Amino acid sequence: MSADVFADVPREPGAKKPDPILVADSVNRSFGGLVAVDVQHVEVQRNSITALIGPNGAGKTTFFNLLTGFDSPNSGVWTFNGQSMNGVSPYRAARRGMVRTFQLTKSLTRMTVMENMRLGATAQTGEKLWVAPFKFLWKAQEAAITTRAESLLARFKLDHMRDEFGGSLSGGQRKLLEMARALMVEPELVMLDEPMAGVNPALKQSLLEHVKGLKDEGRTVLFVEHDMDMVHEIADWVIVMAEGQIIAEGPPSFIGANQAVIDAYLGAHQNTDLGV
Amino acid sequence: MSQTLSNGLFGAIGITAIAYCLAAIGLNVHFGYTGLLNFGQAGFALVGGYAVAMPVMNWQWSIWATIPVVIMASSVFALLLGIPTLRLRSDYLAIVTIAAAEILRLLVSTPKAVNVTGATDGINSFTNDIQNSIPGFLKGKTVPLWEKNISDYEMWVIMLGWFLVIVFSVAVWSLMRSPWGRVLRSIREDEDAARSLGKNVFVYKMTSLVLGGVIGGFGGAILVIGQRNASPGSFQTQFTFLTYAIVVLGGVGKVKGPIVGAMIFWFMINVSDSLLADWTDGSGFQLPTWVMDSSNFSFFRWILVGSGLALLVIFRPQGIFGDKKEQAFDVR
Amino acid sequence: MVTSSFRRALRLLLVTFAFFALFSETAHADEEILQVRVQNTATTGGKKEPVAGVDIVVTDAAGATVGEGLTDEKGVAKIAVPSDGSFTVTIDEATLPEGLGLPESGASRTVNVTAGLGGNANFNLGAATAKADSKLSLLPKTLFNGLRFGLVIAIMSVGLSLIYATTGLSNFAHGETVTIGAVMTAVASGWFTLSSATGGWGGFVQLGAAMVIGVGCATAFSGALELAVWRPMRRRGIGLTSMMIVSIGIAMAVRFIIQMYYGSQPRSYAQFSSQTNINIGPIGVTPRDLTTGIVALVALCSVGFLLMKTRTGKAIRAVSDNPDLASTTGINTERIILTVWLLGGALAGLGGVIFGLDEQVSWNMGTKILLMMFAAITLGGLGRPFGALVGSLAVGMFVQLWAWLFSSYADLKTMGALLAMILVLLFRPQGILGKKERVG
User: pTM of the entire structure?
Assistant: First the structure.
C-alpha cells in the first residue's frame, strides 16, 4: 500500500514526493571549518514511515535539531505543512505538530511516569498561571488527560509503572516512555531519534508494531536508525546521509544494493550488516 | 538552660526567621521547583525592603500603600535579571545573579545616594504606620514567650509576617500541584524535553523568577519593618547563602520545607549563641579560651552553618521533608 | 627683706618689659601684621588640621613683594607688611604637602590690612582634586595600576578557571584559599625571625620564608579538599550544583574560623609597607608594587608555559576539553585533577600574599575579591584559562579606569566591572574567548 505512493518517485537524492509534509532547501550547518549538514533538497512524504540512515557523524541528529529548532542553521529554509519553520523555536515547532524524541532519552527522572505522560498533553488550561491555583477549573481536563495517558501506557505496556519515577526505569522502558509521551502531544510528524538504541530484542518487535500503528493513525514518521532490520521491516522510504549530505534515496530494497550507500558505509563501518 | 531554649524558641518564630522563611519560599520556587540557580535572592529582599522604606521616608506615603510598590519593584528586578540571563547556562546564571544583587547593594550604599537611600546607615523612621496600626488587644502589652518578653510592636509584626508566610505557602502549594507547576518541574529536570513537548520554557522560567522574587521582596519588607531599619548591611551575599541553607535544610521542592527549615535554623543559631555566650562569660562551665572566648564566640555560628550546609548536602541532600527517591538536586 | 626686694625686682622687670614693648611698637609704628592661616579640611575625621611649611608671599598693589613667610606648626604665618592697604597673599603651590590641593578660590587672595588691626587670610586646602589637565596626567598611572591589578586577579582566577574547566565546579571556596595564603604567611612570619628588617634583602628573606609556609598551606588546603571532598563526591555521582553548594558551606566555615582565630582587624605585613616611589617615565611606582607586578607576570608566564609546552599542561588542556576522551588516551584524569587543584591553590596563595601587600591582610580579603575573580573568568569565557587572563586584565582595567574617570563615585568601582561582565554576556553569552555552544 505504501509502496504505491512511492511508485513514481525517482530513486535519487532530493526526489520530490507526491504529498510532502516536510520540505527542506539548502540547509547548511557548519561548526568552524567543519560542515555538519549540507542538504540541498529533501522532502518527506505525508503519512509514510521514512527512515534516515547513515554512518555515525553523518549529521542525522544535527539535521533533526535544525528541523525542530533546537539548532540554527547557517543558511537554508524548510517548511512544515507549507508553513515556514525558519527561526521557529522548538516549543513552537512542537505546537505546530512536529514532535521529536532524543537519542539520549530525556525521561524526567524525578517525575513519575504518569506525570511524564500528563506533561505531554497540549492546550492544558491548568498550565495557565491564573487558572492553575484553582483546581476546580482544570480538574476535569486533567481527568481526561489521565485517561488518555492510561490507555497509551497500556498500549506500550508501561501501565504497571505509572507511579514509578522516570529515573527508576530501565533504558528500554525509557525509550518507550519517550515515545508514548511524544504521542500525548498528538503530533502530525513524529521524529524518532534512534528509538531502538539500547532496547532489548524482545521489546524491539513491539516497538516496531507501535511505529506501524502510528502510520495507521494517519501520522507521519521520520526516524533515525542504525538497526537495518528495523529499517527493512517498517520503512516505506529511506533517506541516506553521509558527511552531511544526502547521498541516496529510495525504498529499502533499493538502498541495500546501492553502491554509493555501500561505499559510504564501508568507508566508515566495515562491519555494518546492510541487510542485503 | 531554660533561658537558652527560650531564646531559641523566640528565634524560631521571630522577625528574622519570618524574613528568611519568605526569602526561602521564594528561592524554593526558583531553585527547588524550577531548578533556577538564583544567587541574587538578597537583591530581591533588598528591593522589597527599600520599596517599603523609601516611599515613606522620601514622599511620606502610608506604609500600606507600599505593598504594590514591593510587588512592582520585585517584578521589575526579576524582569531586568531574567531577560538577559535566563538564556544562559546555569553556571552563568549563578554568577550574574550574585553580581546583580551586589550591584544593587553598592548603589544603595554609595554616599552620593544618602538623601534617597540613607547610604550605609540606611533609612530609619518609616514604621509609624505600623506602630499606629497595632490592634487594641495588643497595644501597650508585652507578650511573654517562656522567658522572653515580646513588645507589642514586635508581636504585631510577627503576626503580620506569619500571615504572609501562610498566604504565600498556600499560593505556592496550589500552584505546584497544578499542571503549571508540573511544567516548572519538568523544566527543572530537562528543559529541552519540555520544549519538545510544546512548552514555552522562557515564559515559565520568567514567571517563576518573578513569583519567587516577589515573595523574597516581602521577606525583605518584613525584615526592615521588624528591625525598623532598612540598610544595605542586612542584604549582603551572606543573606542568599543562608537562604540556600534553609531551603536545603527544609527540603528542596517541598512546601513545608522553607517554614520548618527557617524555624529550625534560627532555633539552632540562637541556642548555640546562647550556649556559647554562657560558656565564655566567665562563670559556670567554661570552654578553654584558646578554643573560644567572649570576644570571638559570636563567629562560631557561621562555622556551624557553613559546615552544617556542606554535611547536609553530602549526607542528606533531601533535607528534612525531601524524598530520598527524589534525592539530590542533581545527579551526574 | 626678701619680700620687698622681690617686689622691687618685679617692678623693675615690669617696667623694662613695658619699655621694650612700647619701644618695639614705636619702632615699627607703620608696620602691620598680616596673619595667614593654612588648614587642611580634607581629613578623614572632618576636623581642620593645620598645615605647616607652606610658603606665603605677599605682594602689594603694584606687584612688588613686600613680605614672605612660612606657616608654622599651627599653620599660621605672621607676615609684616609696611603699611595698611590692599595686598595680595599667594600660596606657593609647590610647597603644599602631597595629596593636598589649592582651595577652589585659588592660590591668591586679596586682603585689606587695617591700621592697628592688621589683616587676615585663611586658606582651606582640600584633597588634590583632579583638574582637567592633571586628570589626563594620571592616566598612565591608572593604566599601569589597572594592568598590575589585572595580573594579580589573573593569578588567582586562572586556578579557578582551570578547576572549572577540568571538573565543571564553580569553587566558591577559592576566595578562602587566597585568604589562607595571606593569613598563614602573616602568622608564619611571627614564628621565626630570619631578619627583622622591614625592607631590602632582609625583609625579602623573612617574607619569602613565611610565604613558603603560607602558600604551602593554601596548596595543602586546596589539595586536601580535592582528596577528602570533591573526589568522593564525584565517585558517588553527586552533581555539580550540590558540589557548588558544598563549596559555599566550606567557604563560610573556613572564613569564620579565620575570623575567630586571626581576628577581625586587618593588618599589614611588617615588610615593605612604606616605600617611596621610583619614577619610570610618567609613572611613579613603589618598588614593592613593581616587584609584585613582575612576580605576577612571571607566575602567569610560567603557567602559560606549563599549559602549552609540557606534557602535564597538555593533559590538563585535554581533560578541560573532554574528560572522557582524555582518559581513553591513557591520561590519569584523577591525577590531573589533583594537580589542577594543587596548582590552583598555590597560585591563589601567592595571589593572596601579593594582595595582602597591596592592601592589608584580613579575614575576608578573599571573599571580597571572589566576585571579581568570577567576573573575570566569566567575562573571559568559562572554562578557558587564557580567557581567565583576558577577563582578569579587563576587570583590573575597568576597576581602575572607573575610579579615575568617576573619582567622586570611586566606591562603586567594582560595580563597573560587574556591569561590564553582564553587558558582555548579553551580547556574547559564552564570554570573550568562550567556546560558542548552545546556551539556553
Answer: 0.81
